[in-house]
Amino acid sequence: MSIFNLFKPNIKKLKTKKKVNPLIKALKYNKDWNIRKSAAEALIAIGWEPINGDGIYYLIVLNEWNKLIHIGESAVEPLIEVLKDEKSFALHRESIKALGEIRDKRAVEPLIEVLQDKKIHLHEALIKALGQLGGKKVVKQLISVLQNEDSITLRCETIRALGSMKDKQAVGPLIEVLQQAMQKPHLDAKAIIIMEVAIALGKIKDERAITHLVSLYNVYTDYVDKKIQNALLKINTELTRFYYAILNSDENKLLEIDNAFDLAIEALYHTNNWVRRQAIWALMILRDYRAVTQIEGALNDKDLIVVSYAIYALGEKGDNRAVMPLIDILLKKDFPACRNGGSPKLPEHWCGPRSEAAVALGKIKDKRALKPLIMVIEEKGCHCLIEKSAWALIELGDERAIEPLKSVKNHTNSPSVVQKAIDILENF
Prior knowledge:
428 residues; mainly alpha
């Protein structure tokens, strides 16, 4: 401590006598913030113009943070002094921000030291400033915060800081955060964390993130999905371009990818149901003879939506190699029946795999489907299944279906659909 600080300066007297140098010294008086403030005001009244280092303390007292940032490196040590001075706590937050903006590495150690002080409640500003400074030591420190901090706000700020530094050392810990978020019950909190991690991983541009990001697609909100898409675009590999194309059902972009067929086959085994569904879409779009066999494999998927989409895709392909697998689906009675529900404002209709198979067989128009379709009609079960089978029988155009259709006309919610099939077949 300097001798000057042993004696409290009389600012009023120094101002009256226009003692500039003692007033400049008073700007550094560390025992009383009010003394420093009064000294600055006195210098203003005298008309003093700050120069060099003396001006930095003057600007600190007057809260001229933007000017201090503009000064840059010369302001770093005085700002660090403020940060270490407990009596200047009111200035700590802005000092931290200024040090972050100046981006001088001398501030790293002091900022980390303050961050480790649990009594200080400026961690959000500290984390942001450290993110601006960057460096291996900062990355290590922020990873520690991420792994040990429970506050959603601080975790999000830490994730943003790690993303801004673009250091690949952070990829593993960020992926761990994604995995942890999936196990927690609070949906809103998870969505916020996942969104921030997606943005950060997009900035770091590491291929290890791709599969993990795609796993979370169509799980939360459209906004989170958009951030995942943006991250994929920034990582910008053939794999990310493929995923971006299928997640957006973008046929043009899909066809630009040389290895799209092989990537679609890999995606058929992804953990995300939506990705598997979109992989089927890709195989449906790609003009490759091998696609039918690959789509057939998806008929055994554990998710019925994926199964139904595979059936739809086989129908669109129109390849008679799919007829027998589709007949197997059609005759499999342990599939759930179709569901009808909703309200007049939000009508919903969901066809089960058997009904989807009937439609697909109608599109392929292979006569091997005639007998199985008649067998399904004669079950007199699910109304939707009867109606879809009736449509398929029209496509097959075989008169042998007329009598079975007549026998079930009154066993459906839409007898007119069945009657139409009868009328069409009678006029063949």
